[in-house]
Amino acid sequence: MSSPSTNIEPTGPRPHPWLEWDRVVVYAFLTLTALYFLAPLYIVIITSFKDLDHIRDGNIFWPQTAYPDGVHFYDPWRRAWWEVCTGLECHGISPNFWNSVKVTVPSVIVSVAVALTTGYALSNWPFKMSEAFFTVLIVGSFVPYQVMLYPMVLLTKNMGIYSTLTAVIFVHTVFGLPFLTLLFRNYFASLPVELFKAARVDGAGFWRILIQIFVPMSLPILTVAVILQVTGIWNDFLFGVVFAGLPNYPMTVKLNNIFTSSFGVKEYNVEMAATILTGAVPLLIYFLSGRYFVRGIAAGAVKG
Amino acid sequence: MANVQLRDVHKSFGATHIIKGIDLEIAHGEFVVFVGPSGCGKSTLLRMIAGLEDITSGEISIKDRVVNDLPPKDRGIAMVFQSYALFPHMTVRQNVGFGLKINNTPPAELESRVNEAARILKMENLLDRKPSQLSGGQRQRVAIGRAIVRNPEVFLFDEPLSNLDAALRVNTRAEIAKLHNDLGATMIYVTHDQVEAMTLADKIVVLEAGKIRQVGSPLELYHKPNNLFVAGFIGSPKMNFMEVEAVSSSASGVIIKSADFTEQRIPVAKGNVKAGDKLTLGIRPENMRADTKGDLKISGKMELVEHLGHETFVEAKTKSGVSFTGLIDGETLVKLGQDMALSFKANDCHLFDAAGEAVHRLKVPEIVHA
């Protein structure tokens, strides 16, 4: 018997026994799923460190621990980066890595900068027909790329940039704009409009409000836009194959060529190393910015 | 002299006519409050004066200069927003100094003006904080600081207190009044809170549906409302309105009657009132008394009794079904469901004609003109 005055409300998590039936099921399921999805990555990684003899032994789940004389564990990686051949050309995947960098960096910067400015103008400086313009943009972000492929080839040809890196950059920038503009417009529309008005009363103009007020406040959505663009452009295959031309192929196209060229022995270990090298950039970006990415998506989702 | 004039100002958003012809003179150093129910256009009108909203037709001038086409920064105004509108990534110092920095004010002068504004608002210790580290009241003070520092001719306030809690609201209201006293600048203030309007204003502008219903000092509006709308809007609790009929009218007043009243003379100007006219009698709850010593008596059954201590608010219904309210002495014994008679003086009555326009009272308390 306790008196009412000593009645204390319970706090903290609900007590439960250490082992609970439903928990066991949940964790077992999660563990199995994780293993299932991690297995390919595991095999790719260990295969990239094996020599061909060891691969031919057929035990794909066990890593190689001992190497014959003159063979190093990093040999497949070296070959993938510097030496692997496609056709007659034997420079490895490194030139194409740099091609991808040369395409991704300017496309991301230009498309994000233009979309940022356009989205800001659409949300805060409405002009005649700006709503109609916005509708066209929404429609534009749903047009499949394949529909525009042939017109784009003609356009770049007439511009004289077909079969160069410039063409790839141009195409990526143009196709990135509708969705990115939508993203920024909606984000800016979710910011309190009084901030914009206060800045105007203080005498700030179009660019000053954008650069000094809106950009610092839009870091989460900027992160989202940059990640979307970097991974999208880096992973792109179609535009690379169509617009770049043979010496300018980005990494993805080169990787595909390494896989499909059946010349001499099939070097699984080198192919795996090239695969990891190609996937490393988007993977790194996700790992480094995952937190901001989720935060940005959430910010857009809740307020937009 | 920073006077503000509005001449036949209209505003439409597409087909919707929001502001329907506003004429208003605001003298230098005046504290003018726009009040009205939500949607009456008071905030739109303020934004038009600020230059944040285009004018569809008409003319706005500040300091005898037409500003219709000037951007906000060239109008000599500063504005304080309801949501404070502080830039979240800047410190208080940067927020307050933002406008000056844009004007290319020399750093030394900028520094001293920001410090001066901080001193006036007693927020020197907050200067290096970010807005997220401030309480609501402090943020509002920073927002006011941002206005002060620009040394404007006209201050515009858009419902600046509505995000603050009750106690802070009273404090900040007093601070704004003091600020007006110290700076002597023209201030235009939008609110839907009539207590703010009554306490702060030199002049209240009552708006309804995009039109001015009355302009006057707080006491003028309280004691001499021009129409039913203003009479019902100013004063809390709301004025009682009762349907009555004119029996006769003369220079000394109008004699009225109704199902609930015996015939009684109300001292108002005769105006156009004729015998047989349907009129509305207005009487404020605070003019009701819990005895029968007044000139007019009304009795009914108590439907709501709220004892507030120093006074008691009652709501009652007469036999003929008319509801009325009264604020009576707090020590009167009143019970729910009880039949009780209240009374009031003929001098305190307002009369309105069928169109809702006031029939002017002959006797108005002297304080109105003091």
Q: Describe it for me?
A:
The complex is a heterodimer of chains A (304) and B (370). With 304 residues, chain A is mostly helical. Helices cover 71% and strands 0% of the residues of chain A. Chain A has a domain at 98-264 and 284-301: MetI-like (MetI-like fold). In chain A, helix 1 (21-48) packs across helix 13 (268-303), helix 4 runs antiparallel to helix 10 (219-235) and helix 7 (165-190) runs antiparallel to helix 10. The termini of chain A are far apart. Residues 300-304 of chain A have low confidence and may be disordered. In chain B, strands 6-7-8-3-9-10 form a six-stranded mixed β-sheet, sandwiched between helices. In chain B, helix 3 crosses helix 4. Chain B is 23% helix and 33% strand. Chain B has helices at residues 42-50, 92-102, 107-120, 136-148, 166-183, 194-200, 218-223, 228-233; strands at residues 4-13, 16-26, 31-35, 57-62, 65-66, 77-80, 154-158, 186-191, 203-208, 211-216, 240-250, 253-257, 264-266, 278-283, 296-307, 311-317, 323-329, 339-344, 350-352, 358-359. Chain B contains eight helices and 20 strands. Chain B is of the alpha+beta class and 370 residues long. The chains are: A mainly alpha (304), B alpha+beta (370). Chains A and B meet through helix 8 and helix 9 of A and strand 6 and helix 2 of B.
Summed up:
Chain A is mainly α.
Morphology of chain B: elongated
Distance between the termini of chain B: 26 Å
The total count of helices of chain A amounts to 13
Pairing-aware structural class of the strands and helices of chain B?
alpha+beta
CATH topology of the domain at 98-264 and 284-301 in chain A: MetI-like fold
Please mark out the parts of chain B with pLDDT under 50 across 5 or more consecutive residues, or reply none. none
